[in-house]
Design goal:
By secondary structure, this protein is mainly α. Helices cover 60% and strands 0% of the residues. It has two domains: 1-119, no CATH class; 123-237. It is built from 13 helices and no strands.
Length: 245
């Protein structure tokens, strides 16, 4: 959705009044980029989602629209459309989990993008944790966004940062990184261990590792382990470095 943040927009009146300003802006900018037919489809789909937010039969109408968004709006704008649809449908954590579980990788990204706008508590963390167990870097990059910054506990957040380094996701994707890394001696130790492992294997140490280490304010003290008997490698990626699924 990055290109949408730079596009001009116009006033938007089709989303609920309680829509966060970021989504109101997103909708206006998306409208400015979509063609007439796509824009009309999106407005109708949002109206349907707002009018019938729950499930009706095996699958709700708005969930069908989630699946159609790529064809109707184009691949480059489908994610933004899906985020807006999820918000219009007022999807709660169980609904988001179902859409995520049944969706394609692109649809799963939209669910992850929508989380901070829809769920205030930690109940949607299983979605984030699932994304972080994959080696799909597009999912990992959005899984470490604002929702994870608010709700992941320290242990899992540290492993999420390591997962980014391990899979090559830029740490710029990690929301609120400076605040959460500040003063984190355990994160510094884990970074030191990972750097030592890379050096011992004659592999380059990611530049982003040094950036995060500087944010901790602690020197790295490699010990070779993350915890007694446990490797430093983040959960879900052991033995798969350099591979993506």
């Amino acid at each position: 959705m990055n290109d949408l943040h730079d596009a001009p927009g116009t006033a938007d009146t089709t989303l609920p009044a309680e829509t966060p300003p970021a989504l109101t802006t997103l909708h206006a900018r998306l409208n400015s980029l979509l063609g007439g037919a796509a824009r009309a489809w999106l407005d109708q789909a949002l109206d349907e989602a707002a009018a019938h937010p729950g499930s009706h039969g095996p699958i709700s109408v708005w969930e069908l629209r989630i699946a159609e968004a790529g064809r109707r709006c184009g691949p480059e704008y489908a994610e933004a459309a899906r985020v807006l649809l999820l918000h219009a449908a007022r999807a709660d954590a169980p609904t988001l989990a179902r859409v995520y579980r049944q969706g394609t990788a692109d649809e799963r990204r939209a669910v992850l993008e929508a989380l901070p706008h829809l769920v205030t508590g930690p109940e949607a963390l299983p979605i984030v944790e699932d994304a972080l167990r994959t080696n799909d870097t597009r999912l990992v990059a959005v899984a470490v966004g604002p929702y994870a910054a608010r709700h992941l506990d320290a242990h899992n957040w540290r492993h999420a940062v390591l997962k980014c380094l391990f899979t090559g996701v830029p740490v710029d994707a990690v929301a609120d990184l400076p605040r959460r890394a500040r003063g984190d001696a355990e994160l510094a130790r884990m970074l030191g261990d990972y750097a030592a492992e890379r050096t011992a294997a004659d592999r380059p140490v990611p530049h982003d590792l040094h950036r995060v280490l500087a944010l901790t304010g602690h020197p790295a003290t490699p010990t070779g382990t993350d915890a007694p008997g446990a490797p430093t490698t983040p959960d879900g990626v052991r033995g798969t470095e350099g591979k993506e699924s």
